[in-house]
Design goal:
globular, 5 helices, about 180 residues
């Protein structure tokens, strides 16, 4: 009988500007590999246009990295008190307006796991950390834009579908799902 490989000891910390090259590489690899079972090759290529690093999250102190004991980044993600629902620095339609915790939902943003670190609980660790941080700032609800690859995790963590929508890219229409959760 074979045993499962040991799970690495993972820790979470706030992202810093020096992490940006490693985060960009991780995001690109995650998009390129983990979305393949859910999207056409054209849609995967188009996903790079609407996904990626949002440096505002790092500047706001709401973006986290998950590392193993050797310091290798295995995943990342964050939350935002700003109106933008999804997208990186290069994405169209960004809105840096601050949200009101009494009436607006905080945003879960830019969740990525390196393909070598899937199924280790990174997504749940990041979501739990984000929810606790937003709760501490008075937010009572969350919203996010789920990819088809991320949707099962979010459902398992208590997020419900609000509405499906699409993003137009040079690779065609990329399906997404707006999801929400009360804290």
């Amino acid at each position: 009988m074979t045993q499962a490989p040991p799970r690495p000891n993972l820790s979470i910390r706030l992202a810093v500007a020096d992490d940006m090259p490693a985060l960009t590489a991780l995001m690109n690899r995650a998009i390129g590999e983990l979305l393949k079972p859910f999207l056409t090759p054209e849609q995967v290529r188009g996903s790079y246009e609407i996904m990626g690093l949002d440096t505002q999250l790092i500047a706001d102190g709401t973006y986290f990295v998950v590392e193993d004991e050797a310091g290798t980044i295995g995943g990342c993600g964050g939350w935002s008190r700003r109106a933008t629902l999804f997208g990186g620095d290069h994405s169209a339609g960004r809105d840096a307006a601050l949200l009101d915790p009494q009436r607006d939902a905080a945003r879960v943003r830019a969740m990525y796991t390196h393909p070598n670190f899937t199924r280790l609980g990174i997504g749940r660790l990041v979501l739990g950390t984000c929810e606790a941080a937003a709760r501490a700032e008075g937010f009572k609800t969350f919203e996010l834009a789920a990819t088809m690859g991320g949707e099962p995790l979010y459902r398992a963590c208590g997020y419900d579908e609000i509405e499906p929508f699409t993003a137009m890219t040079s690779g065609g229409v990329v399906p997404l799902i707006r999801m929400g959760k009360g804290l």
